[in-house]
Amino acid sequence: MNLQEACFLGALVGLGLVVDMLVRRRNRQPAPPGPPGLPIIGNLRDMPTESSWEKYHAWCKEYNSDIIELNVLGRPLVILDTIEAVNELLDKRSAIYSNRPRMPMVTELMGWDFNIGTMPYGSTILSLTRHPTVLQAVVPGKYLVDTFPILKHVPDWMPFATFKKVARENSGVEQEDGGAGSDNTVATLAGFVFAMLSNPEAQAQAQSEIDSVIPNGDLPTFEDKDSLPYVTALVMEVFRCSISSPIGGPHVLQEDDVYKRYRLKAGSIVFANIWAIFHDEVTYPHPFSFKPERFLKGGKLNPVQEIYTVFGFGRRICPGRYMAFSTIWIAVASMLATFNISKVVDKDGRAIEPVLKYGNSSSCLPAPFECAITPRRPDVERTIVMASTVN
């Protein structure tokens, strides 16, 4: 053996020792802290049945950690409690945190297997999100069948019938995702109404801003958005306070990983506690108070990027997040321009205090509550009818 071969062999042995040391060190690293579980079932009996986000946050404070781990029937559940943990794992390391767990009830029994939100991360979802097939399909002459419609009857195996495969792969996209986000939109608007009941001064300030920009009583448009910073700040505060999905969607860790000094096992289901992120006292002082001005600086919008945290993270972030925000914005601005939202009074003239209650589903639609919605002006009906006719 010559010197060069000996050096090469020594380098291989050294590399092997380093790899072995790193593997051993990783295996010695502890799992994230969490409540002790029972044999076999783990923390199954500890899982909260309501307001789970508050319980998870309480555990994080108890263990002084921004990450905790629960074990349910042998499956690790990891909860991320801060924006720092979320950005590090779900965003920066999204290559190994973008899969979804298998959910037979949702995907197989309920038929949501073609829903982008629940679809496993892989070639299928990448092809649907990276290639604007639907937009291509409406370009005249893009596919031969558009020029010769009779070709839609040819068998799939014909060499020029590739358009049938494209159509088959994308036929469910619009149908399955047509209502995507509708529950969250309703939940957010319900949260807005409740916020106006509890914060009439914020409602009055937003209405005053609208009246100063749109003096003729017309409905706001998107062109008015830059002139309505307080309204936009109010919408952002609604998203922060009335979180339609307090716990983010599940992410499956595809390989072993280490965060800080904690070992995370492949196959762990990772959740982000969005509620905890939006109630962080450092980023949002007085987090339980409704304060649109927290998003303003010198009377101008001072947006906090984390407000879009409500729409997910990394490669699984909601692709329609900007449209969703715009939809809520125009709905809120239009309601503020035309209606007053106030508490209902009883027969004795006393205001009935509304109570906001949430369930424990992924989309938290508030339980029904009473409110009074009255037109601000006699011509409100005419304004709405004219706007709907124009549109």
Automatic annotation (TrEMBL):
The record's section on Gene3D superfamilies has: Cytochrome P450
Q: Which residues form a coiled coil?
A: none
What GO molecular function terms would the record report? heme binding; iron ion binding; monooxygenase activity; oxidoreductase activity, acting on paired donors, with incorporation or reduction of molecular oxygen
Q: Which cofactor does it need?
A: heme
Q: Which residues bind heme?
A: C318
Could you tell me the keywords of this UniProt record? Heme, Iron, Metal-binding, Monooxygenase, Oxidoreductase
Top-rank taxon of the source lineage equals Eukaryota
Q: To which protein family does this belong?
A: Belongs to the cytochrome P450 family.
The cross-references to PANTHER family, in alphabetical order and at most eight, read: CYTOCHROME P450, P450, PUTATIVE (EUROFUNG)-RELATED-RELATED
Q: What is this protein called?
A: Cytochrome P450
Q: Which organism is it from?
A: Gymnopilus junonius (Spectacular rustgill mushroom)
